[in-house]
Design a protein that fits this description.
23% of the residues lie in helices and 36% in strands. It is α+β, with helices and mostly antiparallel strands and 202 residues long. The strands form 3 sheets. Strands 1-2-3-4-5 form a 5-stranded antiparallel sheet, sandwiched between helices.
Length: 202
């Protein structure tokens, strides 16, 4: 079963963790040399950040790719950052809750009825469309792909407020059980050396 296979990979990975700034920060090194770093809120156990990186073809460290959480700051100048922040372009990011995968698309001023969400089970993608043709976005749910769980149209919903489209996908029970099991494992790591995780996730 794919869910159990992913749990086994997580458990078999080399893990280091620290407690810092009210967060549990965990670094995973897998047998294929891929790395995953996660941050959890200590009070709620909610996932704040998940990012991945792989080795480059020359054997060096690749760039971190954020899967959950706010994008990593880019090496832009202050002036460029100001321009970027003032941009009215839509910004797509993922911030989960305990029971749902959740995405937010900022800078979308259109009313809720303009948006439609569809799922393509064979391609394993979700699609956001607008009836006014102003926005179109395809995205995947890597958590479901890793566990080879099906995409369910009944699990997805959306709302709109403050120029932000909020999309929620109810986590299947298999994923909820996996996350609970892994959190129990991670809480056993709280005494690990701080230097290990810091040097690997920066």
């Amino acid at each position: 079963m794919a869910v159990q296979s992913w749990i086994d990979q997580l458990k078999a990975s080399k893990k280091t963790a620290i407690i810092s700034d009210g967060k549990r920060k965990v670094h995973y090194l897998f047998s294929d040399v891929k790395e995953m770093a996660e941050e959890y809120d200590m009070k709620t156990d909610e996932l704040i950040l998940r990012k991945w990186r792989s080795k480059t073809t020359l054997g060096g460290h690749g760039a971190w790719q954020v899967e959950v959480g706010n994008p990593l700051p880019s090496p832009l100048s202050v002036e460029q950052d100001t321009i970027k922040e003032n941009s009215s372009n839509p910004v797509f990011l993922r911030n989960d809750t305990k029971t749902s995968f959740q995405w937010r698309v900022r800078n979308l001023p259109y009313p809720k009825e303009v948006y439609s969400l569809t799922i393509e089970p064979v391609e394993r993608i979700c699609i956001i469309r607008t009836s006014n043709k102003k926005y179109y976005k395809k995205f995947t749910i890597p958590d479901l792909d890793r566990c080879q769980l099906p995409l369910e149209a009944s699990a997805i919903s959306h709302t709109h407020a403050n120029n932000t489209l909020i999309i929620s996908y109810k986590k299947p029970k298999e994923l909820l059980s996996l996350e609970q099991e892994m959190m129990r494992e991670l809480k056993k790591l709280k005494g690990t050396n701080e230097g290990d995780i810091d040097c690997k996730t920066q």
